[in-house]
Amino acid sequence: MFNIKLNINLQMTYIIFLLITTTLQVLVLNKAEKIANYINLVDKPDRLRKFQKKPTPLIGGLIICLILFLNLFFLRLSGELFIKNIFIYLFPIITLIGLIDDKYDLTANVKFLITILFFLVFFYFYEDLIIKELRFSSFKHVQSIFEFMSVPLTILCCLLLTNSMNMIDGKNGLCASTQVIILFFIGFYIMKESYLNYGYINFKDENLYLIFLYSLLLFIFLYFNLKGLIFLGDAGAFLGSFIIIYLILDVYSNNSPVLKCEQIFFLLILPGIDMLRVFIYRLINKKNPFKGDNEHLHHLLEQKFKSHKKITLILGLGLIIPNLIIIFYSTKMLIFLIIYLLIYSLSIRYLYKIRT
After folding, report:
1. What distance in Å separates the CA atoms of residue 348 and residue 341, rounded to the nearest whole number?
2. Considering Cα of 109, then 312, then 31, then 56, what sign does the dihedral take?
3. Which domain holds residue 279?
4. In 3D, which of 203, 202, 275 has the Cα closest to residue 241?
5. Given the DSSP bridges, would you call strands 133-135 and 56-57 parallel, antiparallel or unpaired?
6. Kind plus residue range of the DSSP H or E element containing 42
7. Which of 230, 256, 335, 347 has the fewest CB atoms nearer than 10 Å to its CB?
8. Is residue 28 part of a domain?
9. Is 129 part of a structural domain of the chain?
10. For 315-340, what is each residue's pLDDT tens digit?
């Protein structure tokens, strides 16, 4: 009885703490302009790639990181959450890397090297998350990865995901909503795995709580972001990418029966194929593949749909629909992949015709 009362008291204490910190987030977001001006973290329109009407605070990712850290650290101290200490201290570091990039506009090579070093440190502490084999749901064959290739391959995947998430951060609401959608489906797979293994859903799973908490903070941010009052910035793109990487690898490393290579591919399909297309376009045109331009799908859609909300909705559906389909028709993923790539290619061709 004492333990039950103690648990209830801890839960109530945390609910109060969560309400206080989310209220703090709203208050800070309301004062974002003053804070951003004070620390000189403002995104100014240049009429080349930045078309917002006025200088906009670039501290959305920083604010979310601080509130997330406060909540996870509180839970860690209370013993209610057992996420490893290293993760709690690493996600602020990757956010800081993005924040430095926001402030000083690091070159692609410098950012690339710093990010590699970060992931080397991350996998030093989380060796169990390194990809050692490729498991598929379409067929039973398991492809082992040579030991000397496992770390480079894992880091390469992390860099690609981070870069793709950073590249879609071009319209209000787009990066944050994409993160929420991916987190939703990761949460679904975690709950499905729990049900298959135990016959019930373990809502106390630490990864589920991380998804809930981070998604909640993103939803609060989205209210201000869709109004054009604040941007997520590279700090927020890096933070979200790292959390998604951690969750996917943590679930996959436990030999998940539901989250395999195909499911992971579809989770990241839209930002992934758009990044690949833009990279190829830049290389063909002898441009730096890491240097920003206006060739992304969201830039092309802006010619047809001027509204940021419409663009975000279209791209959101472009990620939600294929992931919903493969949940119900998992045996026909290859067919849906071909159809998806065909629709994507035709859409790009149509949008380029509008441009010319």
Report:
1. 10
2. positive
3. 90-355
4. 275
5. unpaired
6. strand 42-43
7. 335
8. no
9. yes
10. 999 999 999 998 888 778 888 889 99
